[in-house]
């Protein structure tokens, strides 16, 4: 029988990969034959964390059949593996909304309104009486830091802070010192083309009759990113047209100021303005205090478009 595959969403961020590694380690300790895999290569941030804690990047897959699967950090089918409708989903561990998801057989589902999937997994280790190995603690801590922007995101909860403190003790790192290094590692633009950069952390959402793509890019220098605004807008437009998205949004989040610039292509732009209380001019607007796609973009835009 094939190994059970554990994976997060496409264009994986640190939580998608960290949660896959964390759940696979827990399941293995409980006697399951599992493998953590990924639906894409790790980002610069995730690669920094993997190297820091001596972990190999999970194998990248395009399809999962004939294996059974466990999903982490997502449940929407357009964010999952290409053949998700052809495999049996055994478990879902997530912290997002539930949408476009159904199964033919019963399964274990655990979804909690916390800032990071790895916060849930930290509890699951304790509930099952399994010690968290240091490398797994390190990558799970990295996921919490990433998803909560070092506890500055409105998605952050006391549970995330408590889990991070527990994981940092196991991993042997100072949360603030390591967290600052981790976030900075993920902000480098390098010489990558805009088309690659916007795909680093990107998700698609069904919102009423519209399909919306929302990417997020973290930075410590928003001006550096905005100097390439025309390049980013062109790349977003090309991907929107090729994939058939109605709207494409790029959230450029300053991890120091905890604000975001937002680039927008497609229609209806008026829905973005109404949902976020902003004015978009030449494909650009500024979102004071907006840092969370999950809490400050997707629900508001869904409400406006879901008519």
Using brief descriptors, characterize the structure shown.
11 strands; single chain; 5-stranded mixed beta sheet; 6-stranded parallel beta sheet; 20% strand; 12 helices; alpha/beta; globular; 307 residues
Outline the structure in words.
The chain is α/β, with parallel strands linked by helices and 307 residues long. The protein is built from 12 helices and 11 strands. A hairpin with a 4-residue loop joins strand 9 and strand 10. The protein is globular, with a radius of gyration of 19 Å. The relative contact order is 0.11.
N-to-C terminal Cα separation, in Å? Answer: 46 Å
% residues in beta strands: 15-25%
Mean pLDDT, as a whole number?
95
Order of helices and strands: EHEHEEEEHHHHHEEHHEEHEHH
By DSSP, the count of extended strands is: 11
Strands of the widest sheet, in order across it, are: 3-2-1-4-5-6
The low-confidence parts are: none
- Count of helical segments? 12
For the largest beta-sheet, the strand count, sense and barrel status come to: 6 strands, parallel
Report the helical percentage: 25-40%
Q: What does the radius of gyration come to?
A: 19 Å
Annotate the secondary structure layout.
Blueprint: E1 4-7, H1 14-29, E2 34-38, H2 44-52, E3 59-60, E4 69-72, E5 89-94, E6 108-111, H3 117-127, H4 134-148, H5 158-171, H6 175-185, H7 194-197, E7 202-207, E8 210-219, H8 222-226, H9 229-243, E9 247-254, E10 259-266, H10 269-276, E11 284-287, H11 293-296, H12 298-305
Parallel strand pairs: 1-2, 1-4, 2-3, 4-5, 5-6, 8-9
Antiparallel strand pairs: 7-8, 9-10, 10-11
């Amino acid at each position: 029988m094939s190994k059970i595959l554990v994976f997060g969403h496409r264009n994986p961020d640190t939580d998608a990969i960290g949660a896959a590694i964390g759940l696979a380690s827990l399941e293995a300790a409980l006697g399951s034959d599992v493998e953590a895999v990924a639906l894409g290569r790790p980002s610069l941030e995730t690669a920094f964390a993997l190297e820091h804690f001596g972990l190999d990047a999970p194998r990248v897959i395009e399809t999962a059949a004939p294996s059974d699967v466990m999903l982490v950090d997502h449940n929407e089918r357009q964010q999952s593996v290409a053949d998700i409708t052809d495999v049996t989903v055994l478990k879902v561990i997530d912290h997002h909304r539930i949408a476009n998801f159904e199964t033919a057989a019963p399964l274990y589902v655990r979804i909690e309104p916390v800032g990071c999937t790895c916060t849930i997994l930290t509890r699951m280790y304790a509930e099952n009486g399994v010690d968290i190995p240091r490398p797994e603690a390190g990558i799970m801590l990295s996921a919490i830091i990433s998803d909560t922007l070092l506890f500055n995101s409105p998605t952050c909860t006391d549970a995330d802070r408590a889990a991070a403190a527990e994981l940092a003790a196991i991993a042997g790192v100072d949360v603030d010192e390591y967290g600052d290094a981790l976030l900075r590692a993920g902000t480098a633009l390098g010489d990558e083309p805009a088309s690659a950069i916007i795909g680093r952390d990107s998700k698609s959402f069904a919102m009423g009759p519209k399909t919306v793509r929302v990417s997020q890019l973290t930075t410590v220098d928003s001006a550096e990113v905005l100097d390439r605004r025309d390049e980013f807008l062109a790349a977003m437009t090309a991907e929107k047209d090729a994939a058939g998205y109605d709207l494409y949004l790029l959230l450029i989040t300053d991890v120091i100021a905890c604000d975001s610039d937002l680039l927008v292509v497609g229609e209806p732009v008026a829905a973005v303005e109404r949902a976020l209380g902003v004015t978009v001019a030449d494909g650009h607007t500024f979102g004071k205090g907006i840092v969370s796609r999950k809490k400050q973009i997707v629900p508001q835009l869904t409400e406006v478009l879901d008519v």
